Each structure stands twice: as structure tokens, then as C-alpha cells.
Amino acid sequence: MVLKSRVAVASVWYGLMVAILAVGAGGFNLPMCRSARADEASESADEASESADEASESADEASESADEPDASKRVGWVFRVNLPIKGATLDRVRRFVRNAVDRAAKTKVEPVLIFEFVVPPDQAEFASSSEFGVSSDLADFVSGAELSRATTVAYVPQSIQGHAVLAVLACDSIAMSPEAEIGAAGIDERTITPRIHSTYEEIARRHKKIPTAVALGLVDPAKEVLVVETELGRECIAAEELEALRKRRTVQSDPTVLFKAGQPGRLSGKEARDLDIVDYLASNRRDLARMLRLPPEAIDEDPSLSGAWRAIRIDVKGPVLAASITQAQRMIEDAIRADDANFICLWIDSPGGSLADSIRLANFLAFDLDPTEVRTAAYIPRQALSDASLIALACDHVVMHPQAVLGGEGDGVFSEEGVRQARETLRKAIAVRKSRSWSLPAAMIDPGLEVFRYTRQGQVRYSEFFCEDEWAEQLDPDQWKKGPAVTTPGKAFQATGDEAVGYRLANEVVRDFGEFKAYYGLENDPTLLEPSWADFLIEALAHPGVAFFLLVIGFSAMYAELQAPGIGVGAFVALLCFLVFFWSRFLGGTAGWLEVLLFLAGVSCLLIEVFVLPGFGIFGLGGGLMVLASLVLASQTFVLPRNAYQMGELRQSLGVLAASAVAVIVAVVLINRWLPHVPVLGGMILQPPDGEEAEALRYRESLVHFENLLDARGTTTTQLTPSGKARFGDQLVDVMADGEVIPVGTEIVVVEVRGNRVWVRAVDERGPDPA
Predict the structure, then answer these.
(1) Which of 83, 182, 588, 675 has its CA 20 to 30 A from that of 460?
(2) Total structural domains in the chain?
């Protein structure tokens, strides 16, 4: 007030002095000049008066700012409201809001609380079942006095219905995707009660932005809502209010129907914006940040606002390999499930190396982890080159050493198809999920992509980095002015920590891990998760050499069991080998139930070919192909290769199988030659006669003739598959079945004799014996 008084007095004296001088000089000048000088004096007085007013206003602002946060510093916090709204939702919102407001007061910033209403995938009907009572309490809390010092924004990126609409209407501002819809708020109500009516009316009147008729039309299908043009502008009224409005104002044209009676009221983002019900149209969070005059990095999704940090650390060091990525993903899942971790620090020091596996971990970080429950932060002390940069940029935050390097050439050389797929993944998935521009991340692995600095024109000037395709995707591409290129043709984009902050790729630079902990308020070091003995065992079992060993032993043992059925040692060893093989693949993430079922079906077909339907080959060929397919698919994460890396994996899988086949053949030869002579294991194989015994057997067989057995009846003493033994009276003879498997104890008849070879068939009791 003292400053105001002094400025006002000074301005009065200044005006009087100018007027006196102007009058005194008037006697010595022409009338035209006298008039001009008077005008100048008047203008000067006006300017002095305006200056005094400005000074007064500045004094007021300075006085008020002593106790209030700096309004130029605004921070946005995002809270994902997963629909439907339940009691737990309200508790989490209250905890989030109170912590955010307290943090803003301590740091003297204005909090912008963004409530993003999310419909779980493929659960649109379930998401509509928000409880009215809880939704009403949430709307009352969001629009209540406790949030008077915060700006609340409802963001609707996809269509919603049910009483979640009430919570949307309760916010200070509403932002929607142009194609998203809100409405049908009473879809789960049999009748719209007076209590529901009064609640929607109260929320609409509290902000005086949404017409009461529109609020009621969104919840009550019986309400017909009209849009009417009057001399004061456009109004939304209930149909029964039209006559009363005509008496008060001039209706300039026929009303148009906004909501027809008998149909649920719905509004798209574009329609609501035209009616000035929605403040902003935003397809993603980056658009929303620009509309709210916030840089994208100022919109933060902070799980610690709902509780304390429970931090873990995962190291991604050295070349990116399928095994290390699978291991890191498994440790993160275990920590969240078992330890309830909500802060994941990925310590990345990697040259990259496997684009497919980096994308696999990036997709896991971006899609499988709920950002409202888990914060992911990439810490890069030295480098995250090539495809390793995708892992970092899939995290919620990226924190780097000032001289650390992000992107650029690394340990991997990628095919054009691999680069194209990575670019599409960034464009349609990861960048959208993390509200990042996708052009610079794509340029880190695509040397041919040109990226330019674009500046948004208009009231809010803002710079972004787009390629031509991403610029064309913007809602208002004409508002962006193209600037200089930031990439070099033919060279993958790379940025240091200091540069990455300017390019909006990194959130912060720190000198060491201590500063990283201070940045997030971590009192202790995050728990470092290292591979356990089980992880090392899984990795060892998944090694191609171990897989080769298991397959060779398994198939060799299976052959030994077929040669001497009934003993069981070979079958047990084979079962154990294949069980360990598929178990390691299960835990390694490359095998599922499909591979196991294929393998079992293939083995069953082979057994049918050997013991049930020999001679045709269909089951044998099909079973063999199924076994091979199961083993190949169990060694890789894809069915058909789609890039160079996957082709390399397929070649490795086929190489292991080919080497195993050769080794099994060698093993079979050795089994037939040496195993029968081993004292303990000799009983596993029927030992063929050799030496003098074999010579005597051949001599006896050359003298044996069985013509006398033609048409004779006998009984099998072993299963004929197709060869075996049968007894004719007191004589035990080697026989051959005529194209069928004959069980033990079956009555047979000799149908043909060729020297010492006897061909038989089962006696058909339904018909006569052959003559």
C-alpha cells in the first residue's frame, strides 16, 4: 500500500509539471504546434498513469507471491483411474491427491492433477459398472475444497460409460480424444432415482461449465436435450424448458436435438468441444501437455504418491542376449509378485546386440507393468548403444551421466526388415504408451531416418523433434514450423546425457548413483537382484551344448528300450532327458504347452507305427515331423523367422538337431556293438550271436526246412511285430506275421514257407481255415 501511494503521488506531480510546461510554451508556438504538444503531454500523462497502475499491480502480485507458490512453475501428476470405479479406487485417489498437494506445497509449485480414465483391454462392458455411491464420493472429493489449490483435469483417451462420467464432470477441465465418447452414465441403473438426478445437477452447477440439462441427459435416457440459438449465444436446455426460454429470449432458429428421448445420451470429443464442454482435444499425453502449457516431461506418473518406494535394481550389462533378457524379465516379475516392489532401477551399460530381444524387454516394461503401481527408471552411467537404447526409452524415466551415450552404432547389425519392425513397434506401441516422440528413438537404430526440429506456432511456442511421418500425424501439423535437421544421413542418431535432456530423451543427468538415489528420494540402495543358482541352472540347461547332450541321450535310450521292451531302464532315462529339456525351455521362455503336446503326439504316432500299424509309414512320417517341429519350436520364441536374428536362431536350432541326429546314429551303432558286453547293462539289449555260435546257427538254419508246417496251427509265444516266435506242438519256430501285429498267445496258421522263413496269420474264428 505504501508503494501504491508513492507511485500515485509521483504520477500526479509528473502530470502537473507536464501540463504547466505545455501551457507556458503555448505563447511562443503556432496553434498547430501548441495542440500537438498538448496531445503529447496528455499522452505522457496517460502513460505515466498506466505505469503507475502497472507498478501498483506488480506490487500486489509481489505481495501475494510471498505466501503462494510460483504460478509459473506447474507440475502435472497423472493418476490412472482403472475402470470400473470401486471403493479401493477412491482410497487410492485420496492418498495420491493428498501426497501430491503436500509435495507441491513444499516445492512451491502449482499441482496439475490429471485423472486418466482407462478401460482395461476387452473389458468395456465390465468397465461400465462403476458404483454410483463411490463415483459420487469421488466426484465430491475431486471438486471439493481440499483441491482448491490444485487444477484437476479429466483425461478421456477412450470411450467410457457408466457413473465414471460423474467423476469426469467433477474436474476443473476435461480433455478427450477426438473420437472418444462419454455418456450412457446410467447404463447399469434400472431406474434413474431423484438422488442420481440431484447428484449430477449438483456436480454440474458446482463448476458452472457443463449445462445441467447435458449432465442429466448423459445419465437419464428419458431426457431430451436441445441446442438452441438465442441472441446471447448457444444454449443447451431440456425439451420442457423450451417454452419458458422463448418467453425470456429470442430463439433465432429451430432447436436441434442433442440427446433424443429414449436413447442414452453420448458425446464424442469433437461434439463436446464444439459445445465448449470439453476444454482440450488430445490424442495422447504429449498433446495434453502442450494444451496445458506443460513440457511433456512435466507430466509424471509417480507411484510413490500412493505409498513409499520399495526399490530393486536389475543390471543389464554387456551385449544384449536372449538369455540375459529373459533372466531380467523373470527377476522383475518375481520381485513385483513376491516382494511387492514398486520401483525398478535398470542399470544399463550395454552396446546392444539383439534387436528382437531388446524390443521384447521394452514391450514388457511398457505394457506388462502398470505405471500407477510400478515406476521404472533407466540409469545409464556409461552407455546404452543401438538397440539397448530402446530398453532405456521404454522406462518411465531415463537418468544419465552427463557424458554417457544413448543410441548410435553398437554391437548389432540389423536387417532392413528388423529396423522396419522396430520402428513400427516404437511408433504404434512404446512411444504411445510412454508419451514420447518416436522419431529420435527410431533414428537411433535407423540411420536413414531424418529428424527435424519443429516449433509450434501460436500462443504457446514449443519445440519437438519429428520426422516427416510423425509431423503429419499431429492434430494440427500446420501449426508446426520446420527447423533444421538434428540427424546426419546415413548415421544412427546418438546423444550424450546433457544432449538427451535437451532432446527430451532423458529426464535428468547425475554424476553418480548417489545423485540418482537423491533424485528419487531413495534413502538406501535398491536391492540388487542377481541370478540365483536356479537361474544359472536354467541358463546352463538352455545352452545348445546341453540341449545336444540331452537329445542324444534321450533318443539313444529310447532306441535301447525299443530293442528290449519291458526292462524300463531306457524308457526311464529317455523320459528324464526329455523332461529336463522341455523344463529348461519352459523356464527359459521359449517353450509352451504347444511344443510339449506336439512332442507327445509325435512319439505316440511313432509307437503306433512300430507296434500297431506297421508298414504304411503315415504315422511314422507324421510322428517324426511332429517330434522335430516340437524340438525346433522349443528352442526359439517364434514360429517362422521374420528377420536376420530369427533366421540365425532357426539355423542354430536346426544345427543342434542335425548334430544330435548324427550323434544318435553313432550311439546306436555303439549300443549294438558294445553295450551287450557290459556286465550290468548287457541285459538292456538282445545280444546277437557271434563267433562259433553265429556260424553254427547259420549252418543249422541252412539245413532247416519247414515245408511240413504249411497250414499247421500254432500259438504265438511273443508278440509278432511283425517277427517273433511261435510254438507248433513241441517245436519253437521263428515266424513272420503277414502285415499285422499279432499279440502273445494268439492262435495262428502257417500260410507260406520259404526255406527257413515261416509266414503266418492269425486264425479267423469267424471263417473256415484255408484249404
Answers:
(1) 182
(2) 5
